[in-house]
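Researcher: Quick sanity check before group meeting.
Model: Go ahead. Protein one:
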Amino acid sequence: MVLQRLKATINYNVFSGNTPQAIAVAFLAFIAFFAITFTITLLFQSTAFLQGTIDPSNPIQSIMRHGFAATGLSEEKPIFANSILLTYIAFGFVFSIIETSYIVRFLEWLAKSFNISLAKFSIGLLLIYFVIGYTFVLFHANVKGVEDNTALMMTFIFAIMSLEIARRFKEMEPALYLHIINNVFFIFNIIGFG
């Protein structure tokens, strides 16, 4: 009985042969997310200037720092300090798969529990997105140790974007690629390949 209630409807690759489309959607979503990140960074720049945490001449550097902080890595002590390859594998791929799967399954469970349809966007669905986004922020703050408020706000927005992509396309593939592209991009811009 419980297993029937928790049966997944949004799986990884529901539609065979659409991987190029899923990758294209993920890249377009990443560009949109980067634009949102840029806007948020500019909005909060004055506070960051006062705190001395941003260089006013280079807002792109600030975006990269916030995006990197959202991954849960530290510039001073990456978790796999002796292996950049393991850092990419863990934070770029493994955690992306786990986190994307978790939030999509959480979406399905909450929607089923509150009898909210995933077929069309609604206020109830938006409330579920907010609950899951907040949970995602708490996870990044408490488990990954993210303390940067701008990074946490970006994490919230990222969760909502991922959920909507998975719901709209009825599969996890584009949302997962978005997560991987996002994490690898921000990791690369801070630690590179060596």
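Researcher: Fine. The other one?
Model: Protein two, sequence then structure:
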Amino acid sequence: MKRHLKEVSSGQLYEAQILESFPGEKPLKKDGWQFTWKKLDKIEGAQFYKIKLKDSPSKLEGLLMITLINDEMLYMNNLELAPHNYGSKGKYENVAGCLIAFACKKSFELGRGNYLGFLSFDSKTELISLYEEKYGATWAMGQKMFIDPGHGRKLMEQYLNIAAE
């Protein structure tokens, strides 16, 4: 499973790894992160994943938090890029795409019944159109969104170079 982050300034691709993130590895708000990851770390049943460059394993590029609701539907609780990857001046592209595609992959592994392959999440209002246009997400109501199995497979192929089984 190859995934790459693209350096914005040069266009160069760098191989990245998505790994489980353990307690004690979470970044701090004082370092510019938006979420209080250390508090989120205490939520029972939550799984955390980090994305790092293969050649810079000590530096986080982004974090993902997912939970399985009612033992059948995967929910993406939080997704955050490292502060140096925010917005149009970010250092690397594809960080969010890789993490969302990874969450889609997990939805095929953990989802059950009618929810197999579906990834649900809440979006900030200003990001709804971005999720629809860039990631193929569907707006349900309010801030509720989901990525269906078909779009999930496309994201897995695009960002992780794998197809769902």
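Researcher: One line on it for the slide.
Model: The mean pLDDT is 94.
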